[in-house]
Amino acid sequence: MNRILAGYKVTLEVDRGTDFGFYLTDGEEDVLLHRSEIVDDIEIGDQVKVFIYYDKQGRLAATMRIPEVQVGKYGWAEVVSVKRDLGVFVNIGLVKDILVSLDELPAIMSLWPAEGDSLFITLKLDKQERLFGQLATEDIIQREAVPAPKGIWNQTIKGNVYRLLKVGSFVFSEQGYRCFLHESERKSEPRLGELVEGRVIDQKDDGSLNISLLPFKQEKMDDDSEAIYTYLLRRGGAMPYGDKTSPEDIQFHFRMSKGAFKRALGKLMKDGKIYQEDGWSYTIDKKQDE
């Protein structure tokens, strides 16, 4: 007969009662079902479905509150605490939180999940039969994902980041769509597990999506124009940058491409806020002062 192991849903017989619950058995092993973990009336001799886990004292215990996340079954789990030397603890609906080891997490700690983020995980037992959370692999995500419907282009999508690569981030949407966020379509790299909101910019033949976290070009130009104008004001209304400035200098000082910089300058000039002269840019009040 198979042993009773943590992380699995099993059917056991109610063997005997105590002041604090019932002992369940498979005929060879017993496990406690505490009264706080009983959700339906049970009697001696009943067959009950329970989930096996380790309680806070490290003992095998049973609960009738069966979580979605089990060994071999995947689901979302919210991060409830972060421990630098261990990893992150997630809530799967048990009285005891589950550890996702630091071995599963990014090498850069700033990209670790934060409290409130969500991870798509299963459970696993290590060689000592300790229970851990395990991140879903790309193969699992592709198995669990559903193809996005046609005509979703430019619509807003929310989802949690489930994989980080140098070229970009992968997102599993609330609807179950698999999405890719290229590094050029974000201002900063999101954390693993972070909930992001973007818009669909492309749809692949397999139903997966490309998304962007950047605003529409007009909105972005407004943001860039505001950033440039604020920079000008901080410099007293003059700066040695304009249409002829090198892309490298623009990227270093303004964190934007030369094309975006020129569009933003053009808008500021069209709005009558700045003018350019001899490679410099000035706020319009400088011209009035001359």
TrEMBL record:
Position of the signal peptide: none
InterPro entries per the record? CvfB_fam, CvfB_S1_2nd, CvfB_S1_3rd, CvfB_S1_st, CvfB_WH, NA-bd_OB-fold, S1_domain, WH-like_DNA-bd_sf
Q: Give every S1 motif domain span.
A: 5-65, 152-214
> The organism sits in which domain of life?
Bacteria
Per the UniProt entry, what species is this protein from, by scientific name?
A: Peribacillus saganii
Q: In its UniProt entry, what is this protein called?
A: S1 motif domain-containing protein
Q: List the Gene Ontology MF annotations in alphabetical order.
A: nucleic acid binding
Q: Return the similarity comment.
A: Belongs to the CvfB family.
